[in-house]
Design brief:
Helix 8 runs parallel beside helix 10. The chain has ten helices and ten strands. It is α/β, with parallel strands linked by helices and 255 residues long.
Length: 255
């Protein structure tokens, strides 16, 4: 797939927060075969280990996608994005503007506002958004070339709460990369997202908090690959009635 003109082979994007140890994180990244990893500026600068953490991530060879996690206003997100660009030397930014403290649902009004400011300033914006078609249109008008609709609230592991809305997004934005971000908890959830025609999935908590993060990273990678292959193969639609797989013509007639 192409994202902002960059060819990406892996359809699994991996978050880097909440892992039990740096070694386990590194194992998960390698096993996932992800080419893009997200990192919060707040995580990077929270203590004196920030520079070392970034150096460790660079050793993976993955493209770093900094995010504005924890921001609640457009102004705060824009400021954080500029700091991230300077620190990580990239114009890619995952834009989060949280509007609700319990559900962590994005504030779509502030999101569009921040996306427009950042796009005008040369950023390649990856907006964490809802599955609303109008919001998606406004984000694209603001300069975004990719959309990241949620599957469910961040860290909830509920899977896809509204697959019909994601299916509608795929039909409405046929040429825009769609990356499901948030809510995926199991490999089956990832398969479902990819079978709907999503271009990729971003995971963090589902892998980081699993009993075996390395094993879950591998399972998610295989699930995403299988779901994509299933979508490309164009599966048959569900039917109300049984359809025999053996033809009736030619059956023996017993007298």
């Amino acid at each position: 797939m192409l994202i902002y003109g960059v060819k990406i082979t892996s359809r699994l994007l991996l978050g880097t927060a909440q892992y039990p140890s740096p070694a386990i994180l590194m194992d998960a990244i390698r096993t996932s075969r992800s080419e893009i990893v997200t990192v919060s500026l707040r995580r990077e600068t929270a203590d004196g280990s920030g520079a070392g953490f970034f150096d460790m991530l660079r050793q993976t060879g993955c493209r770093i996608l900094p995010n504005t996690a924890g921001c609640h206003t457009a102004e705060e997100a824009v400021t954080t994005a500029h700091m991230a660009r300077e620190l990580f030397a990239t114009d890619w930014i995952k834009l989060e503007v949280i509007g609700h403290s319990d559900t962590l649902q994005p504030d779509v009004f502030a999101l569009v506002q921040a996306a427009r400011v950042l796009s005008d300033d040369g950023f390649k914006v990856f907006p964490y958004t809802t599955d609303d078609l109008i919001v998606g249109e406004r984000l694209i008008e603001a300069g975004c070339e990719v959309l990241m609709p949620w599957g469910a609230p961040i860290g909830s592991a509920q899977g896809l709460r509204n697959p019909d809305a994601l299916r509608a997004m795929r039909a409405h934005f046929p040429d825009t990369p769609l990356i499901v971000d948030a809510g995926i908890g199991r490999p089956s959830h990832a398969v479902q997202a990819m079978e709907l025609g999503m271009d990729a999935v971003l995971l963090n908590t589902a892998v980081a908090k699993a009993r075996d993060p390395k094993g879950m990273a591998g399972a998610m990678a295989m699930a995403i690959q299988a779901g994509r292959a299933g979508f490309v193969a164009d599966p048959i639609e569900p039917r109300d009635m049984a359809v025999p797989s053996t033809p009736i013509l030619g059956l023996a007639e017993l007298s």
